[in-house]
Each structure stands twice: as C-alpha cells, then as structure tokens.
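Same chain as my last thread, 338 residues:
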Amino acid sequence: SYTVLPPGEEAHGLETAAVDLFALPRQVEVAPDGDVVYVATDQGLSYVDVTDPTTPVAAALALGNGLSGLDVTPDGTRVYGISDTDGLLYRIGTGPVAALESLPLAFRPEGILVDPSGQRAYLATDEGRIPVRDIVEGSATFLSEVGALVTPGTSLLGPMALDPAGNFLLALDGSGQVLIFDLETFELHAQAAVLSSARDVVVGPRGERAYVTDDAGHVSIVSLLSFANVLDIPTGGALLGAAVDPMGSFLYAVNHQLDNLDIVDLRSGSPTYRTITARVDQQVNPVDVALSPEGLYAYVLIESTQRLAINTVGVGPVLSSLSRRSGPEGTKVCLLYT
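reply #2:
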C-alpha cells in the first residue's frame, strides 16, 4: 500500500527545491524570521529568498576574495562576515543587502559568532585567542575589541557555539578538545576531549548538551553539566556541518563522504535514541546545513554543484524511497514510506 499526498503537501525527508549559487559555498545561516538564507561563498555573500521554500530565489553580493564565514544578528538587520584570505571583518545590511563597512584585522579570522543579545561578535583566530567585538551601533566602542578569550594552545578551528542562556562559549581546537569559556569572567571554564578532526559544534535548545561532528564520521555528545564527553556515535563517512532542531529531538549532520544528511535521534526513551534514525540522500559533497526557525526545512549547501538544496524534514510522512521520481501520466512507481 502507499499514501497519495494531497495537493500542497510535501513528503518528509526529500529535496523539495534547489537553487544555483554560482559560487563555492562555505557556510549557511538562516535569518531569524526564516525568510532569507545567507551563504558565505568564495565570491562573497549569496542570499536566497525562501519565503516560499518550494520556489527559492537567489541573489549575490560580491565581496573581495569572498567570505569564509558569517553570522546573522538576532534582529536580522545585519550580517557579519569574515574573509580569511583578505583578513577582513564585514558589516552587511540586510534591507537592502549592501556592504556597510569592512575592517582590516591584525590576524587571520577562522570563524565568527554573534551572541544571542546581538551585542557582541566573537572571532576565532589563528593566534589561539578569540577577540570580542562590540557590535552595538552607536556605542562608543562600536566594532572595537572589548576583550578576548585566551586558549591554552595556539590552534583554533573556526566553529563556535553558545548555550541558549549566553553563559558559555564553546570552541574547537586542533588537538581534539572542546574549550568551554565562562562569558562572565572570560576565563576558560573547562575542556572536554572529543575525537580529533572535529568539524562543527552545536548546542541543544535546553543548553544541557553540545554535539561535535568530525571527519571520521562521529557525533560526540558533550554534557554541559559535567563538562565531559559522554558518548561518541559512529555514523560512517565524514561529517561536517550540523544543526539541532528547535525541540532538541533530532540532530542533522551533513555527510560529505556518503552524500547524505544523517539524522540522529535525540529523544530520550525512543527506541532509536542516540542512533542514526534516517538518512536523506543529497547531491555530491554536502558541506553545511541550517534549519528553518520552526525546524520544518533543512537548507544544505552542495559543494559539487554550488547549489542550496532545500529538504523537508519536519513536514509530511517519511518517504524513504521513490523510484522512479517522475514520469508521464500512467507511470508505475515503487514507494517505501512510514
């Protein structure tokens, strides 16, 4: 038996649309209202109108040698981007999209993160420190460095994450450690060992756990209560970017080697708790993922085709296979669904 979806309904776990970016994508973030997806590319900033996720519309802003990372302010009015090649910090307006300012940096920026209050931006650097910039427009110290988090080593990776309360900042170093900083004192509070070759770190919505992906195909779970690695989940392949849904029920991680979106069940008591519960096929070499604010869509960057793929992950039945995917009227298809 199979289910026929009524008009307007989409199957869960399938690519519903895709749009060309015409540049090599590096990082993806979603505006707080969910209407625009911002992508750091080797040409600058691509921005995609996803007001209707089934018909995305892309545009681009050229910026020097491109952006290596970005983040969006909580009010959605600014995008802050970094260029590791040019050593620049960009301030970009979103209505309309335009470069407002570029600041030269005395270091190579590896990553950027805006805090939940929209008052500070944290910059991971190649010097083993995380400068803190004031981004309150009109402030006497606007865009100036107002402090720094100092790491015990000299190697920092770009990805960073904050707990929802804004008490702790998590950063990855090159030796397989999650560095956990107290943002009230700016001191290193704890370290948690994870597997080497970490690629991304995200924090669940309750602020109790962090999830670290690595290019050996593991998701490491770090408790933010005990500040220890409590479990390494093997997935196979090589994981890069990750995101957790708003309810903290599932983690989505792009598998760059196996070309899929791995979905890890985070629901305590579920029979598939802390295992791969589903895989959504992607085009060749996905590199990053971000979720819509309500968790219904996963926006995946595809390196090989330089596209943004839009996947339904929170709506409709789970359709795990469909062959053929299209055909003239009367074509017979085979479906497998839950």
